[in-house]
Amino acid sequence: MVNYEDKEIIKVPRFNEVNGFYTTKSRSILMSKIKSKNTRPEILFRKALWASGIRFRLHNKALPGNPDIVINKYKIIVFIDGEFWHGYEWDKKRAKIKSNREFWIAKIERNMQRDEANNLKLKLMGYTVIRFWEKQIKKDVLGCVKVVSEKMEGV
């Protein structure tokens, strides 16, 4: 840490170019190609929802967390979370992070905190929040659609 005028500033570790690690610039280019909207699992899930007759809206920026899918009629929100970014089996994965640990651990844990805060805000607004992991969608998309339709019946 560096002390500037009695304010502690955490220096973010940078990537290096040794033994196959990426430089900051090349890592930045690589990371910019990772999509946050319209991912394959998200499209797969949307097609299955539509085929089952469930109508929805996408990426409502007015709602906390910018949900992937919003079913307004039933006040249902669906998020499709990537395993790495949202901390799937975080206790196991955290120990396995080797490169730039300080940065990635803080980043993912902050994402997890933000997810919980957004869930709470949405619930207080009267929404039912459903979160699926990308791997759930890939493995059993129809089962995930069934979860949504059961929630719709319960409303």
UniProtKB/TrEMBL annotation:
Stored Pfam families: Vsr
Look up the EC number in the record and give it: 3.1.-.-
Quote the CDD domains the UniProt record gives: Vsr
Q: Which domain of life is it from?
A: Bacteria
Alphabetically list the UniProt keywords: DNA damage, DNA repair, Endonuclease, Hydrolase, Nuclease
Supply the enzyme class, top level.
Answer: hydrolase
**A GO molecular function held by the record:** hydrolase activity
Which family is annotated? Answer: Belongs to the Vsr family.
What is the recorded name of this protein? DNA mismatch endonuclease (Patch repair protein)
Q: Which organism is it from?
A: Mucilaginibacter terrae
The organism's taxonomic lineage, starting at the top:
Bacteria, Pseudomonadati, Bacteroidota, Sphingobacteriia, Sphingobacteriales
